[in-house]
Amino acid sequence: MDHFLYRDGELHAEGVAIADIAATVGTPFYVYSTATLTRHYRLFTEALSPLPHLVCFAIKSLSNVAVLKVLGDLGAGMDVVSGGEYMRARAAGVPGDRIVFSGVGKTKPEMRLALEGGIRQFNVESEPELRALSEVCVSMGVRAPITIRVNPDVDAKTHEKIATGKKENKFGIPIDRASAVYAEAAALPGLQVIGIDVHIGSQLTDLAPFEAAYLKVADLTHRLRAEGHTITRLDLGGGLGIPYERSNEAPPLPLDYGALIKRTVGDLGCEIEIEPGRLISGNAGLLVASVIYVKNGEDRDFLILDAAMNDLIRPAMYGAHHDIVPVVEPAAGAAQQPFDVVGPVCETGDTFAKARHLTAQQPGDLVAFRSAGAYGAVMASEYNTRPLIPEILVKDDHFAVIRARPTFDEILGRDTIPYWL
Which letter, b or e, does each residue of 363-389 get, where b requires 16 or more Cβ atoms within 10 Å of its Cβ? Predict the structure, then answer.
């Protein structure tokens, strides 16, 4: 469910007409719904109750500080994978004891940054990282709470580029080597082992892979405790998918996911952490664009938009589907025709959809890409020197620009010509 609905023939974000935002800031732009963000976060907290738990939003899915503040003020923790994301979480007012640091390539400066600013735990992914973190801690005279990310070799049945729990993926340590790695961690002076971390992938639409992974985590918990380790926290990752195509069957609900967690690991007496991103932010955002041209090709018609692959790269990178809808509601039974929906970037890959059936469009008409809140703005670039597009946050009948479109002078001002030219 989201809060982007037609009212009086026009698409609205909560109580704000999309056309009114477009008239104010121009197109393209991203717009996010506070009500949707709030609802989706609360679905997870309700699903895990009464287990002790913390829902840590995966910042990599949507990192605008205003969005993080919305979630942080609700009590959310934050899952970060870089020093920059850590700084965003802190800028949003999230305390260090609600920030989990994940990622395979943490640097020593990033470790020091988090230790100085406060951290809930590091999710450590390799033996070299264990040693590096211990060295930093010893140099600072502190101990870092850690979980170790285990790779359970479970096929998440998702796109190969977002699967993270198979043995050929770069993430975590093989679960069969966990005993040896935990023994090394316990012997290092700067570390305090507190739990286990697992994450098998993103956009999962079936609970079976989660169940397989979590049962392995439950077995590992018993084994590590028998070996003398204190395991009080289980970080179970994120990855629950969303329905990108409204016509498709919806993925499992957070309530079903919570029931699975309770069934598989709920009797272990551990605090549960999860790290959802997409399911909180995905359907909370739209990308809104204008039609530049309708081009008649030899065997197809093209809808050329002012948004491009640099603004929303998911279709080009993953072959991802986004429903595309007109901002002005079509009349009931209005005829549709197939369009290839494309952007202006000089790449054939700058294609959002092929043979997508839409009602007739004219230059200047507005269209909206649904389910664009996750991995949209965060993966955008300035390719072709196209400015990063604005981000808008809506609450009830108000909206605010939470990231402005930079001017060309601002973009060019970041470049420096060396003295010899």
Answer: eebbbbbbbbbbbbbbebeeeeebbbb
